[in-house]
Amino acid sequence: HSSGLISGTSETLNQKVLACLTTTTKYYNLGIYFSELAFTVGLLKIQLPLYSGLSK
Question: What pTM, to 2 d.p., does this model score?
Fold first, then answer.
């Protein structure tokens, strides 16, 4: 009986770790996405005045 309890506990633990990793990965990917977005917006803000200056 004790071995069954241990294996059940480890399965639950594995599921929790897996869920934690999945959540962490989601937030990590979101962080990358937003940093890339911010970088792109920053580049656009720099480039737009240059383009408007060139077009005049």
Answer: 0.55
- Cα 27 to Cα 18, 31, 40, 47, 51: the distances in Å are 14, 6, 20, 30, 35
DSSP of 1-56: -HHHHHHHHHHHHHHHHHHHHHHHHHHHHHHHHHHHHHHHHHHHHHHHHHHHHHH-
Q: Tell me, what amino acid is at 33?
A: Y
pLDDT value at residue 49: 84
Neighbours of 11 (CB within 10 A): 10
